[in-house]
Amino acid sequence: MADQVVRLLVTAPDGAYLDLTAGDGGHLFWMAQATTSTARLYGVDVDAAAVKRAKRRLDKEQAVRDVVHASYAHIDQIVTRWPDQRFTGVLLDLGLSSLQLDQAERGFSHRFDGPLDMRFSQDAPGPTAADLINTLEVKRLAEMFREFGEEKQAARLAKAIVRERQDGMILTTRHFADIITRVVKPPHQAKSLARIFQALRIAVNKELDHIDIVLPKALALLQPGGRLAVISYHSLEDRRVKRFFQQEAKGCICPPRQPVCTCGRKPTLSLVTRKPVEATEQEIQANSRARSARLRVAERRTA
Q1: In terms of CB atoms within 10 Å, which of 91, 152, 169, 235 comes out highest?
Q2: Mean pLDDT, residues 120-133
């Protein structure tokens, strides 16, 4: 959604902009085309391989000042190394890239056989998808599939996984997908596969926790009048972004039935997009994954 992002986020051609999910540098590249050489563009991404590709792609873009390998959850610490610590625009593109999905060795997709990894940062010390699948008890597995995948057959799938691992560890995406398709019958297999792989990926990377952490930090980095743009790809992400934007636009956190505000909390954001912006048909044809993308934008109030 590069066109919509640039149109709604880049409000000053010589401003400072931060992409918290730089990936291969696509959004930074298009922001560089929409700004002058005096603009300052920065990027952060948790995937070390993606950062290397982004640096190569953006090497000749004068406005791009730095792309850093780090988690956006630590952005308040990362910005201390830069001359710009307040920004005209901040972008957060949630989820994972098509390139990550298509790399069998990353283990994100049931379409390819590979190790059950699913870590965004493969040098991170945290558990892999295989670690969770082979150690969590039935109740916790079911909760994970239900909470992060909204899967109706979560309990049956959890029980099947625990039975299967008694005969040997579940280490590959093919093995894991086979268990799911034995439990879930057509025509529901494709959707269940997508939901369960999504749930496991979210759990491995603590994605929803990190969204809750980064949104207030991103808000704090905005200049007055600066904009925060967030692209989400499923309801669990979008719900959190919508709730955060609405609360910050409202300000007051007093109980709804309280007649007079006593908290004194003022609104910090104004909604730029009342409803999420969706990808155009042209974008969907170029990248089918864009079909589920939802872009929300809010602006930091000046007072």
Answers
A1: 91
A2: 90
Q: Which amino acid is at 195?
A: R
**Predicted local confidence at residue 303, as pLDDT:** 64
Sorted by sequence, the CB contacts under 8 Å of residue 52 that are 6+ apart come out as: none
CATH superfamily for domain 2-96+207-300: Vaccinia Virus protein VP39 (3.40.50.150)
CB within 8 A of 180, min separation 6: which ones?
A: 110, 157, 189, 192, 193, 196
The token pair at 181 is 């398709």
CATH T-level assignment (fold) for domain 100-205 = DNA polymerase; domain 1 (1.10.150)
Q: Name the residue with tokens 């040997």.
A: 168
- Delimit the domains of the chain by residue range: 2-96+207-300, 100-205
- Residue identified by tokens 């959890």 is 158
pLDDT digit string, tens, across residues 232-268: 999 999 999 999 999 999 999 998 888 889 998 999 9
